[in-house]
Design a protein that fits this description.
Elements: H1 8-18, E1 21-23, E2 35-37, H2 39-58, E3 63-65, H3 75-79, H4 82-85, E4 88-92, E5 99-101, H5 102-109, H6 121-130, E6 147-149, E7 154-158, E8 166-170, H7 177-180, H8 183-190, E9 196-205, E10 220-230, H9 232-252, E11 260-264, E12 274-282, E13 285-294, H10 298-307, E14 313-314, E15 321-322, E16 325-332, H11 333-344, E17 345-349, E18 355-359, E19 370-374, H12 380-390, E20 396-398, H13 404-413, E21 418-422, H14 424-429, E22 431-436, E23 442-446, H15 450-457
Parallel strand pairs: 3-9, 19-20, 19-21
Antiparallel strand pairs: 1-2, 4-5, 4-6, 7-8, 9-10, 10-16, 11-12, 12-13, 13-16, 14-15, 17-18, 21-22, 22-23
Helix pairs in contact: 2-11
The structure holds glycyl-adenosine-5'-phosphate.
Glycyl-adenosine-5'-phosphate binds at residues 174, 176, 206, 208, 217-218, 221, 223, 225, 288-291, 328, 330-332, 334-335.
Length: 460
Amino acid sequence: MDKSKLTMNTLVNLCKNRGFVFQGSDIYGGFANTWDFGPVGVELKNNIKRAWWKRFVQEDPDTYGVDAAILMNPRVWEASGHVQNFGDPKMDCKNCKTRHRADTIIENFSKGTVSAEGMTDAEMEKYIEEHDVKCPNCGKRDWTPIRKFNPMFTTSRNMVGDGDQKDIVYLRPETCQGEYVNFANVRGSARAKVPFAIAQIGKSFRNEITPGNFLFRTIEFEQMELQMFCHFNDAMKFYESYKEKALNFVVDLGLSRENLRFHDHDKLAHYAKAACDIQYKFPIGWQELNGIHNRGNWDLSRHTEYSGKNMEYMDPFTNEKFMPNVVEYSIGADRLFLAILSEAYDEEVLENGETRVVLHLKPFLAPYKVAILPLQKNLSEKAKEVYAKLSKHFMCDYDEAGSIGKRYRREDEIGTPYCVTIDFDTLEDDTVTIRDRDTMQQIRLKVDELEKYISEKINF
Ligand code: GAP
């Protein structure tokens, strides 16, 4: 298909109808910018997370996994700067009462020719006034001044039980702080020597001002983050190598190279040495997919200062004592899910003139590796036997409803790479047909050969 015609709506509808993603709290009219992953969505997302873990933790002897608590000591967020600084420049339209990000408004107004990344609030206000930038919702220019808006969600902990004294607790807006605060624990328990990395996958929460575009920007999402702790002299080397690893990873997951590009940040945080994103060409245009940052020694220095625990490292070979630098690689699991779905989605016109929707997912990512389809209902006993055998090894679907053609179409729409059809010959000679999703070719195999045949094709 002509992918430039693919819209977010098409993906949202497919996701809802086929059980990938539903609106959060759907029966209550939804809860804006939250999404629930359905039976096939949870499989795809788990497969994405498994692939990331395999590539970055399992296959790297110098990377250690953790699963830190979402609720952290509030001092963590003071040390990280989130309490004081974490905020997007927001403006309200006084006319229609909608809230907007000033930087986004400028970038959209200039059709991407102006980057607001390096602008101060005053510079953004000046640009908006001089260029007469109007509210995209109502078309009036009646803005409040820019204010910073802290997008950390808070909850509270009742410390004495009588409801009077409550301490604010934050829902983490990023997972990486759980990696910094465990630097010493991991180093000590794993006898890890710098350079080494800590990785984790987990939920983050942000009260985003401009959430939207389906899974692209939500208020609750999952991050896959990795912090490489290293000597200052090695940091740029690791930064470059993680740029390459991050790119190779998403290409190996099926994103095509022409839909990916690096974007260096124009404006760096005061402590950062280098920062870049990998952008993907989503149906909404080029947008950040993940980030790679050389953060200097800011993170461990700040946690040393705020916790009173010295995070310096003594090199056992050189006896040099230093504060490790951090190179961070961070990618959102939900955003990657959306990119993979956009890339895999296809509409093919068949010889008979019908159009089939097919997800060309890499087999290791597919929710179901194989669907078991009895040609007729009276073959279901044998088909269930085959299901029982194969489901010990892979996620399998089972479908006996409707014509075989319709069942193939349903499996194509959720990206099932193989369909096994049980027919009357199966009862005679224990063979089945196995159909390939992409080529639609069918071959005949013995039931006993299926596990090996499929296993060989679904490796990552
Ligand atoms: N620890 C660094 C950090 O959190 P970030 O650029 O704010 O950096 C990293 O987030 C990645 O997390 C992004 O590249 C994106 O993939 C994902 N992400 C961030 N905010 C998100 C949101 N509101 N919804 C979905 N994914 C998000």
